[in-house]
Amino acid sequence: MYETDAALCFHAAARELEGFIPKSTKDFEEMAQAIAAKYFLPNAKGNGAQYKAGVKTLLHHILRPMAAAEVKDVETAVAGIRADKLKEEKLATGGKKTLKKAALNVGKGGGSAGLEDYVYDDLGVDDDYDFM
Question: Tell me: the pLDDT tens digits for 64-97?
């Protein structure tokens, strides 16, 4: 819809929030753009943890009155945004993917986590136990 974030901020800031009552989908979209441009985007850089907490809190309050199916639709939209961001980041890093070396779960104390194979009783061939 808008070419850059600057164009988004300029367009949304032109719309006054006070006294604005949205009545259509387009009105709600413009209101959301205005809120983002006026209150969130100017504070996005340099305030990573605080910005993220603010966005989470805003979403929590906005999504509360919605039905589960509607929240699922919003979740799908956010997942799409995340996928786009991951593609952008991958292109920016040259497509290099950092792999972590797989490690065996050895438990909290560095023990074997119950994976020993010598723990089993060795029942000989001539024992009295017949499972069949």
Answer: 999 999 999 999 999 999 999 999 999 988 866 6
Q: How confident is the model at residue 124 (pLDDT cuts 50, 70, 90)?
A: low
Residue 30 and residue 15 in contact, taking contact as beta carbons nearer than 8 Å: yes
Using CA atoms, how far apart are residues 40 and 12, in angstroms rounded to an integer?
12
d(CA 29, CA 7): 15
Rg of the chain's alpha carbons, rounded to an integer?
27
One domain for residues 37 and 52: no
**35 and 71 share one domain:** no
pTM exceeding the 0.85 threshold for the entire prediction: no
Residue 7, token pair as written in the block: 């164009």
Q: Residue 67: how many CA atoms within 13 Å on its side-chain side?
A: 2
Would you say residue 127 lies in a domain?
no
Angle between helices 25-35 and 5-14 (to 10 degrees): 110
